[in-house]
Amino acid sequence: MKNKLQLIGLGTAALGRPQYINLRQEEEKAFELEIFKAHGTSILEEAYAQGIRYFDTAPSYGMAEQLLLDWVTEKRYQDVEIATKWGYTYVANFDPEATVHEVKEHSLDKLNEQWQQSQKLHPFLSGYQIHSATFESGIFEHVDALDRLWELKNKNGLLIGLTSSGANQKEIIEKAIEFERDGRPLFDLFQVTYNVLDQSLFDIIRALTGLNKRVVVKEALANGRIFPNLNLPHYADLYRELSHLAEKYKVGIDAIALRFCMDSITPFVVLSGASDKMHISDNLKANDFTLSEKEVALLKTFNIPPKQYWQERSQLAWN
Fold first, then answer.
1. How many CB atoms sit inside 10 A of residue 136's CB?
2. Are strands 159-163 and 8-11 parallel, antiparallel or unpaired?
3. Per-residue confidence at 191, pLDDT binned at 50, 70, 90?
4. Nearest CA among 143, 83, 135 for reference residue 107
5. CB pairs under 8 A, 24+ apart, for 228-233?
């Protein structure tokens, strides 16, 4: 059974590569690989010290998967749980000026290639996910890859899952729920985008919970869009309400956004994307209070259509 701090996990995208999709408002620092690596390790240790036990990573997160592997191999914490993914290859080579950062490929060859590294995370590895499953990538037509996932599930005792992005997340999840092998479901784990702005999966998340599927929430902070920004004046009313709640509960807006996900649905865990110690502490304050039903209902009114959400997200820069 999870203690309260384990309701929040740590996503490692910002720890493994210098650039990721986000609305950054602070000044960027010069990048030095060894300093970056040492910083990432220190953040993993700080997260553990503050009670986080669930860590999410991927090969496309630069050095993040290897960083986690080195860390847990050295520390041998018995209560750490790691989920990783396959399907994206990191190609930016830690160059902050790179124009292409990752390449998607949902083939059997890519699965086998990336599994060779990811399997080293045993015995801490619990979940193996298709990274950003989409109809466009043809994942549901790649029967050989799905058969291989079924084999890995049964041989290694893994939860097989997928991460969803885009305006048709709901349709992807509905398709995945139906997918079976030998009369049993292939998918047990669904990492979904859900936050104050995009609540389009509310009903299907409830359905997943009813089917005893593990739901992990990513992008709870909407890639930084929940923080007051003069360039996004159409969110002025949302910013006003988030700031009011933050003042009421004596926490940051980040904690309100995370708490909204925890209170409006019942996820297994909500991922923090914190990349420094202060942000970890601030995020974990979400464990110290609950929003009232009225407050949750009010925040739900700021939901926007999925197409609008993802169109706006597509305009965010790698920074």
1. 11
2. unpaired
3. very high
4. 143
5. 228/253, 229/23, 229/25
Q: Which residues make Cβ contacts (< 8 Å) with residue 286, sequence separation at least 6?
A: 7, 8, 251, 254, 255, 256, 258, 259, 262, 270
Question: Which amino acid is residue 191, in one-letter code?
Answer: Q
> Which of 2-41 are b and which e, b meaning 16 or more Cβ less than 10 Å from the residue's Cβ?
eeeebbbbbbbbbbbbbbbbbbeeeeeeeeeeeebbeebe
Strands in 44-124 per DSSP E: 54-56, 81-86, 88-90, 102-104
Q: What is the DSSP string of 180-228?
A: EETTEES--EEEEE-SSS--TTHHHHHHHHHTT-EEEEE-TTGGGTTS-
- Helix (H) / strand (E) containing 162: strand 159-163
Q: Tens digit of pLDDT for each residue in 48-79? A: 999 999 999 999 999 999 999 999 999 989 99
| Single-letter amino acid code for the residue at 180 | E
pTM for the structure as a whole: 0.92
Q: Are 217 and 270 in contact (CB under 8 A)?
A: yes
- Positive or negative: CA dihedral 253, 254, 259, 264: positive
Cα gap 147→182, rounded to integer Å: 11
Helix axes 236-249, 253-264, angle to 10 degrees: 90
pLDDT tens string 250-302: 999 999 999 999 999 989 999 999 999 999 999 999 999 999 999 999 999 99
Q: Provide the CA 34 distance to its chain's centre, in angstroms.
A: 25
Tokens representing 263 are 């209170």
Instruction: With beta carbons less than 8 A apart as the criterion, state whether 132 and 106 touch.
Output: no
Q: Return the pLDDT at 241.
A: 98
As a whole number of angstroms, the distance between CA 311 and CA 315 comes to 7
